[in-house]
Structures are given as structure tokens and as C-alpha cells.
Design goal:
mainly alpha
Length: about 55
Amino acid sequence: MTYISSSINHFENHIIDLENSKARETTLKQDTRLCKQIFRPRLEYVYLNVKVIFKS
């Protein structure tokens, strides 16, 4: 469970970073694109692991 909470904390930090970069519109678009490429698979991975943990 510590792995899951640390992952969630990790994502929250990145969301805060993205919000801080809103002043820089052009970099925000790049950050969002990177975010989708990097985090979507990871979030799905974490989600699937959470489902497995709760099933067992």
C-alpha cells in the first residue's frame, strides 16, 4: 500500500508542477503532451495493480 500512496503523491507533485507552469503557455502544452505519454500508462498500471490487490 505504501507503493500506491507514494505513486499518488508523485502524481500530485507533477500536477502541482503543471499548474505552476500555466504562466508559460507554450511549455504547458508540451508538459501536457509529455504528461499523457508518460503518466497515462503508469496510471493504468497502478490502477490495474490496485484492482489485483483488492481482488486477492
